[in-house]
Specification:
- With 128 residues, the chain is mainly α.
- It folds into two domains: 81 residues; 45 residues, no CATH class.
- The chain is built from two helices and two strands, in the order H-E-E-H.
- A two-stranded antiparallel sheet has the order 1-2.
- A hairpin with a 4-residue loop joins strand 1 and strand 2.
- It is rod-shaped.
- The termini are far apart.
């Protein structure tokens, strides 16, 4: 009887040892899996930060470029607003033509507005 009890206890202890070993192996696998996932997250975060810095650098250079464009446009607009009254007098045998620069600019604007929808402007069609 006693030997049966001892064998039974040995089997029970062996079973507990196996279950404990399985639990320990399962925990180790879980820890390895968690470390791997954490590494993936860290790499993903680094890539995201690198991408953000690249975009910020790109935006920074674009902002500088845009500011330069804006400043150059402002300069151009300021120079365009200065009225210049230059008169061009053309002496030909047929007639004497007197055209001021403002009238010429207005004439150009009228022609371009009229021919805007056409693929090729008709420059011979001068409005009155």
């Amino acid at each position: 009887m006693e030997e049966k009890r001892r064998i039974k206890e040995q089997k029970k202890l062996a079973k507990l040892a196996r279950l404990e070993e399985k639990r320990r192996i399962k925990e180790q696998k879980q820890l390895v899996k968690q470390v791997r996932l954490e590494e993936k997250r860290r790499i993903k975060e680094q890539k995201k930060l690198a991408k953000q810095t690249r975009l910020q650098k790109k935006r920074g250079t674009n902002d500088i470029w845009k500011e330069e464009k804006k400043s150059s446009k402002k300069k151009v607009l300021k120079t365009e607003n200065v009225p210049s009254e230059k008169k061009v007098i053309i002496n030909t045998d047929i007639a004497k033509i007197d055209i001021s620069s403002t009238k010429f600019k207005k004439l150009i604007e009228k022609i371009t507005k009229k021919n805007m929808l056409r693929p090729f402007p008709n420059i011979n069609d001068i409005p009155n």
